[in-house]
Design brief:
The chain is α/β, with parallel strands linked by helices and 445 residues long. The chain is 40% helix and 15% strand. The protein is built from 14 helices and 15 strands. The protein is globular and about 60 Å long.
């Protein structure tokens, strides 16, 4: 180094050798800085190779559910409708199209649109919600207010608040025809509100003031429901969490006063905690919005931006497919078509479940419900997100306990206002969990 950079050669300080020496120093420093940067990147960020390896490893790790991977001997938990079957779709090309980056300075304000009735609703989300309903044709959105909630669970509570009479009167009765979604009684009575209280099975109710929760297709049994109470001062809230083409034929565009939807069951993004409501009446929409303002001062903008991008990815996928078909490129590439992917999954799972039930001989399931689907433009069967599984075996009065002994966790009929010989089983978990479940079921007799 000294011979090259010491400046003692016959060309003097400004000569070629010195210049070469200085260049050498510069090159060496540059090299060292690059090496340092490389080291630091590896040390703190993992480096390019490490980043690629990390990305690959991330893609290979067990699903992002926080649950341990299942094995042949595992306890299989199908109690919750955790929509893990969608993960395979979003790990494909669609996942890239639904990726968002949120810089540190973005989404800081509480407000999304100060002039709007629902001031915390991101305009981009509202646009994509309306666009998706137009694509699927499952609900009328024109002429409705769109509200956003932290899951449709928050919107359900907002609706109860909005529909309860103001002032000191007896609590509003909240009813739903049995078997009803098990969260309805639990959430209604959780805070012991003076505004409303759970009043049970709508078919047994004979009062005048009520809110009827209509879940269609029904959680737990997949049936198509209409309000059973039509008299008095009652109001219906329609929970349409499962009114999507993968689960049921879309027979018409729903146009009820209050309709609740959630990304949890439409796209599988339960963890984003994002739901929306379509509400006809302005005063009711205003009160629902007020509830969310008082409850959580709005809804995470980050989640809204993500949900908007996810909904956009779905609708864009269908627009692309329609464009390709119009151009004569008619191969059946459903990699970007979520409802096609999910329906294929449901068809295959229900075929396996019905085969297992037939092999076992001690269980029954609700009959298949076919209908003309305006979205698919053909007659298709319903493939509900839950199996409402009944056991006819002598002595099995507690089916939930019977299955638990066989390492299958389900939700017993009692929680839905039904009897103990029936359970609800999620059809939406991972392929691995579902495969082990049907194998075990087929062997029970
Ligand atoms: N309604 C029904 C019928 C449901 O099954 C669920 C989820 N299990 C919800 C509402 C709640 O959805 P979210 O995750 O949006 O709170």
């Amino acid at each position: 180094m000294a011979a090259m950079g010491g400046g003692g050669g016959k060309d003097g300080g400004g000569g070629m050798a010195a210049q070469a020496g200085r260049l050498g120093v510069v090159a060496s420093v540059a090299f060292n800085l690059a090496a340092l940067a490389f080291y630091l990147r590896r040390r703190y960020f993992g480096g390019d190779d490490a980043a690629a390896a990390r990305k690959k490893a991330e893609a290979e790790v067990a699903p992002s559910s926080g649950k341990p991977p299942v094995t042949k001997d595992s306890i299989i938990n199908l109690d919750h409708g955790d929509p893990m079957m969608y993960e395979a779709f979003w790990r494909g090309g669609a996942g890239e199209r639904a990726t968002i980056v949120i810089p540190g300075w973005q989404t800081m304000s509480y407000f999304s649109d100060v002039g709007s009735l629902c001031w915390f609703l991101e305009p981009g989300l509202e646009r994509e919600v309306r666009r998706l309903h137009r694509l699927v044709g499952n609900a009328v959105a024109d002429g409705y207010h769109v509200l956003v909630g932290t899951g449709s669970t928050q919107l359900f509570q907002a609706a109860l608040y909005a529909l309860s009479p103001p002032g000191p009167s007896a609590p509003m009765n909240v009813v739903s025809p049995a078997p009803y979604y098990s969260s309805y009684p639990a959430v209604t009575d959780f805070l012991k509100s003076g505004l409303y209280r759970w009043a049970g099975d709508a078919k047994m109710f004979d009062g005048d003031t009520y809110v009827e929760l209509v879940c269609s297709p029904s959680n737990p049994d997949g049936g198509i429901r209409e309000a059973v109470l039509k008299s008095g001062d009652g109001v219906a809230v329609h929970d349409l969490a499962y009114y999507w083409p993968q689960y049921t034929p879309i027979t018409s565009a729903a146009a009820h006063d209050i309709m609740l939807f959630t990304v949890s069951k439409c796209t599988g993004h339960a963890g984003t905690r994002l739901g929306w409501a379509l509400v006809k009446d302005r005063a009711v929409a205003q009160k629902m919005s007020k509830f969310i303002e008082l409850n959580t001062i709005g809804v995470s903008k980050d989640s809204q931006l993500r949900a908007a991008k996810i909904l956009k990815a779905i609708t864009d996928g269908y627009d692309r497919a329609a464009g390709a078909a119009a151009a004569g490129d008619d191969d059946d590439d459903s990699s970007g078509r979520l409802f096609h992917f999910a329906r294929r999954k449901m068809v295959s799972r229900w075929a396996k479940l019905r085969a297992a039930v037939a092999a076992s001989g001690i269980f029954t399931l609700p009959d298949e419900l076919p209908g003309h689907c305006t979205f698919a433009n053909e007659t298709v069967s319903a493939y509900p997100p839950f199996a409402w599984l009944r056991c006819g075996k002598e002595g099995v009065d507690d089916l939930e306990g019977y299955l638990r002994e066989r390492k299958i966790i389900s939700r017993g009929g009692g929680k839905f206002g039904a009897d103990g010989r029936v359970v609800r089983i999620s059809m939406l978990d991972t392929d691995e969990a579902f495969a082990i479940f049907v194998d075990r079921l087929a062997a029970m007799n």
